[in-house]
Amino acid sequence: MPTMQFPYPRKTSHPPPYQNPRASTFQRRRTLRNLAPYGLGICAIILVFLYFLRSSSPTTPRPPPGIPPVVIVTTLDAKQSEHYKANVIENRKDYASRHGYATFFPNTTDYDLMSGVPSSWSTVPAMRHAMTLYPHTPWIFYLTSTALIMNPSQSLDFKVLDPRKLESLMIVDRPVVPPDSVIKTFSHLKGERVDFILTQDKEGLAGGSMLLRNGEWAKFFLDAWYDPLYRSYNFQKAEGHALEHIVQWHGTVLSKLALVPQRVLNGYTKEVAGSEEEGRYREGDFIANSHGCARDPKRNCEMEMKPLMVRWKELRDGEGRR
Q: Does 16 have pLDDT greater than 50?
């Protein structure tokens, strides 16, 4: 005989045994409490994995096609002769053309530096300006107008920017301001995590040649460095001493800093206060910097750099790149 179908659920003749709601709630809570450690463990594993994944990747993305990997920034002073400035521009453009870099030559008078502030402070807004003009360019290379690129054969990536190369050059556990600053460079900083590269002489940080990774951190750093309080403080070495103050007292800056040997980026051409023999420019070095010539009224930058400019043009012309 076929089973009869009902248009609505039929009440079973064998109902389940009565269960106390409070007991059921207690059972669920106990189950969740037992599973909680496993859930937390899984979340911890995921977070650790994401951390190492992020740490192993460069902080700056690869630039889009056609974007220069570096922009060279040099500020030009109105007090310099047109011939002198033309030679400096020619020097930078020659190096840039070899490696696909861009160049930027603002004047020191292009920026509002506050009354009585030395023109050397223009270094900071000039780099910030370059970041605006080249938002996708990974690196900003600032080089003072008292320096020349004497050996243009090697790219910055080959010389210092490659993370493994940078790690081999980094000076670790060194006082930021020698000889006895208690604040020292980090000992275990990875090349991928570095956003700011420069050298030091025997007196302190040498900001005439430095590399800054383009990005949000660089904006924060430059804005902090250019704070009106620092500009109005009348540091003896203006923006140089302000930089040393920021690096020593702001861990967020020190944690991104890498110091490299002076002759890698900023060899000095003569013995001046702050120079050491190991930081003195030698034939074949990358940079020759007449450090201090712009601040010393007894020195003439153009006359000091003339023999180096002649030598650079000889080397360039010998390669047939005139």
A: yes
